[in-house]
Amino acid sequence: MFDLLIRNAQLFDGDGGAPRTGALAVQDGRIAQFGPEVHGPARETVDADGLALMPGIIDGHTHYDAQITWDSFADPSPVNGVTTVVMGNCGFTIAPCRAQDRDLIMRNLTHVEGMSLDALRAGIRWDFETYPGYLDMLERQGVGLNVAGFVGHSSVRSYVLGREASSRQATDAEIAQMASIVRDALQAGAVGFSSTTNEPHNGEGGVPMPSRLADEREMRVLTGVLGELGKGVFMTTKGACTSIAELETLALDTRRPTLVSGFLHNPANPTRATDFLEEIAAARRRGARMWGEVSCCPLTMDFTLESAYMFEGFPAWLPAMQCDHGELEGVYADPAFRENVKKDLIALRGKRAFNSEWDKLQVIEVALAANARYEGMSIGQIATESGKHPLDAMLDLGLSEGLRTRFTAMLLNSDDAEVAKLIADPDNYVTLSDAGAHLSFFCDAGFGPHLLGKWARDLRVFSLGEAVRKLTSQPAAIFGLKERGRLRPGFWADLLLFDPATIGRGKPYRAHDLPGGATRIVSPATGIRSVWVNGLRVVYDGKVSTGRRPGKVLREFVHQET
């Protein structure tokens, strides 16, 4: 007898083709039968009533490393159809970590990943020190969806160099110690090794995240561990100081899959992303197993001047990052600070997320009733009305309200025609949800429903079957996820039942549910009926059932030439 039988569904198998009407049976957490005719009794039968059934979404770029320790279901990913998450991207992890360095690691995450320090302090479960110990803790705790994790360069560097990790290069002995940690993590089940050289990636006080201090020698040794063991993915977020050619050399030397992040359309530098992606495609033709990570969502960010993350990539903003909170208003009022920022805005236009598009930066909530008329206005409009430079207009408004004014900015990926070019390439990897990070700024955990709804159904950039492939079998192949990402007999029953007519990204709202009372932005999907993880239903009509934790901490990965 089957455990589950789903009948009368439009079956998308994950290979990119058109759907077939049929049924799917599950036994012991795996797909037992699949196709037009499935026969046999079942303990539970679901009539799909013609809805679409696909493999669960695999989200390959998340930062749930901290949240998963207090929220085993990694909300809101399951209600967005996600059944597997890959954590630890960009080198930002909480393991390994010595007890005396916990506050340092948390403080860095509050800046580079926009997380609440109070929430991290109240929520993180520190029952580990090493990376293998972290995976063991997650297994003991149980997880609601499948979890794979990178061992992160910045955490490894902090473990070895301590507080000097962000200020100097490593010695040969320290590099050897880091390599040993990466080796142990990979052997224990890390999906790979992640890093970043991206200039906006700064920790507390504006200091560079530790991996940005690594020289070529260190990078070659640490990525070389992947080649030595013949396992793992190398993932990095590329900064201006790193060329695609350098990354191609690492990919060829290690013979390991390499993910390069992250590429979004920038209207101030419209060919930048496509030029880099063409370089990656050329490297792939030369034998390097490289993929570029692209986003299908517009990058929109909410913020106040108490934590203006979108400006932290500008060197001139450093005084605002280094000062004590009580000194912040004085920094913003300083004419020299403002003048230096204005110079950066000109010099770095097209090279940062914010590119002086003041008409796309709006006031969404004021703190004083006297300023109510500004709600809904752009900073560009306010600047024109007041006769001020837009930076001055924004800072003056924020200062008048004790830095409590809430702004929203449309930063990147706002041109549909240009975004379509990035995501339509069959080899570009659509991901970059950043789920688990930037909780108070934005929520892109619904990138999968957005791809299925807007880009496949509405704009028809590709077929619905191709959208399913990009969310399932493609990432499964890149990460080497065994027996996942397709509807096939013997594969694990990670399943998503949805309505193709209504699937989409839901309206975001602010929730007050983080540890310590911190807030976050969440965005559940529309059109999702049910989600199963390893054969057990965890989402029904948009609600998560937390009674069981059927997920697995994934530790074994099998890569094939792709």
In terms of topology, how is this protein built?
Blueprint: E1 2-11, E2 20-27, E3 30-35, E4 42-47, E5 52-55, E6 57-59, E7 82-87, H1 102-112, H2 117-123, H3 131-141, E8 146-152, H4 153-161, H5 172-188, E9 192-196, H6 216-229, E10 233-237, H7 244-254, E11 258-263, H8 272-285, E12 290-294, E13 299-303, H9 318-322, H10 328-333, H11 335-347, E14 361-365, H12 379-386, H13 390-400, E15 406-412, H14 416-424, E16 429-430, H15 447-458, H16 464-471, H17 473-479, E17 495-498, E18 509-511, E19 520-522, E20 528-533, E21 536-540, E22 543-544
Helix pairs in contact: 4-5, 5-6, 12-13, 15-16
Provide a descriptive summary of the structure in words:
By secondary structure, this protein is α/β, with parallel strands linked by helices. It has two domains: 367 residues, Metal-dependent hydrolases (TIM Barrel, Alpha-Beta Barrel), CATH 3.20.20.140; 110 residues, no CATH class. It has 17 helices and 22 strands. The strands form four sheets. Strands 1, 2, 3, 4, 5, 17, 20, 21 and 22 form a nine-stranded mixed sheet that branches. Strand 20 and strand 21 form a beta hairpin. Helix 12 packs across helix 13. It starts with a strand and ends in an 18-residue tail after the last strand. The mean pLDDT is 94.
